[in-house]
């Protein structure tokens, strides 16, 4: 009789022996939790142990408190499996899942507590791309060769300061935002070149400036599993209008944040729980054509300016 060949992807024993401690048979719900906790407590790496112990405790508490049924357990497994099979890369899907639960923002707020005089942080979101082109101050980040459709021009003037108010020169300020359609460049089928992105450098006095479009609120892209979750939750999937910033300077903590124009109806129910009060900024409408042209706004279009300061 021939021994069947093992397929290479069939899991095999990982070589770890049972622990020497005696554990009870699993006869009750409490003994499942007891044994799972005991095994988690044996995790060699201290940080991994802390995370696994907490995860087991909370997962078991959650399961017990909500009396999850077998059908619901299976539904949950199918829900998670569906995430791995979406058109978007899985890392975007899973990030969005954590985003809509507020977990991404929670991680950010825990890791970046407020610093006096510093601009608050915000989540990076799934639409960052590392290929933003280097730009000169006053350059545009949007391709407006065919106009900007229904959007308005935005002219942003910012200044990078230390928390005690000293300007920081040569700081890398990476910016990204949606285009006039409310879409990031990577949401299009073809993406020949980055659009809506740019990397600027602060001048000697800490200032930087660029041209873009006034951001619009946009819907978080919903894959079928995420859509089913949001609908069951009766929650909208809109993100409040914002512009993303990633500020980096040697010797300083990096700042990843977003700024939200005021009169932003979605900001307090933002789909990913972004939008701290201090990140809401006032846009100043500018109708003066000469002011617009001075800032490189094509034609007689109305420009919109905003100013803000950021510390890193
Ligand atoms: Fe965004």
TrEMBL record:
Pfam entry (one): Dioxygenase_C
Signal peptide: none
Keyword vocabulary terms for this entry: Dioxygenase, Iron, Metal-binding, Oxidoreductase
SUPFAM superfamilies: Aromatic compound dioxygenase (SSF49482)
UniProt xrefs under InterPro entries: Catechol_dOase_N, Intradiol_dOase_C, Intradiol_dOase_core, Intradiol_RC_Dioxygenase
An annotated Gene Ontology molecular function: catechol 1,2-dioxygenase activity
Iron listed as a keyword: yes
Residues covered by region (Disordered): 290-312
Cofactor field: Fe(3+)
Domain of life: Eukaryota
Keyword Iron: yes
GO biological process: catechol-containing compound metabolic process
The Intradiol ring-cleavage dioxygenases domain, residue ranges: 156-184
PANTHER family listed in its UniProt record: DIOXYGENASE, PUTATIVE (AFU_ORTHOLOGUE AFUA_2G02910)-RELATED, INTRADIOL RING-CLEAVAGE DIOXYGENASES DOMAIN-CONTAINING PROTEIN-RELATED
Family: Belongs to the intradiol ring-cleavage dioxygenase family.
UniProt-recorded name of the protein: Intradiol ring-cleavage dioxygenases domain-containing protein
Species: Hericium alpestre
């Amino acid at each position: 009789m021939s021994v069947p060949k093992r397929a290479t992807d069939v899991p095999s024993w990982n070589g770890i022996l049972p622990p020497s401690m005696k554990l009870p048979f699993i006869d009750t719900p409490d003994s499942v939790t007891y044994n799972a906790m005991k095994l988690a407590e044996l995790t060699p790496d201290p940080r991994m142990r802390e995370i696994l112990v907490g995860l087991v405790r909370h997962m078991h508490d959650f399961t017990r408190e909500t009396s999850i049924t077998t059908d619901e357990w299976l539904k949950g497994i199918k829900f998670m499996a569906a995430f791995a099979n979406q058109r978007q890369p899985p890392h975007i899907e899973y990030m969005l899942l954590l985003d809509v639960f507020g977990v991404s923002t929670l991680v950010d707020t825990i890791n970046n507590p407020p610093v006096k005089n510093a601009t608050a942080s915000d989540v990076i979101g799934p639409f960052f791309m590392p290929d933003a082109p280097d730009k000169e101050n006053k350059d545009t980040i949007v391709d407006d060769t065919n106009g900007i459709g229904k959007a308005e021009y935005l002219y942003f003037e910012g200044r990078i300061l230390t928390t005690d108010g000293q300007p920081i020169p040569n700081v890398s300020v990476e910016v990204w935002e949606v285009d006039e359609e409310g879409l990031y460049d990577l949401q299009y089928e073809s993406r020949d070149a980055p659009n809506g992105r740019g990397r600027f450098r602060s001048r000697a006095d800490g200032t930087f400036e660029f041209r873009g479009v006034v951001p619009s609120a946009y819907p978080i892209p919903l894959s079928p599993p995420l859509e089913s979750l949001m609908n069951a939750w009766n929650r909208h999937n809109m993100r409040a209008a914002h512009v993303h910033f990633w500020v980096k300077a040697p010797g300083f903590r990096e700042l990843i944040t977003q700024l939200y124009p005021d009169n932003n109806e979605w900001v307090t129910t933002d789909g990913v729980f972004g939008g701290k009060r201090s990140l809401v900024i006032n846009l100043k409408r500018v109708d003066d054509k000469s002011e617009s042209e001075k800032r490189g706004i094509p034609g007689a279009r109305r420009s919109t300016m905003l100013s803000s300061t950021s510390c890193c």
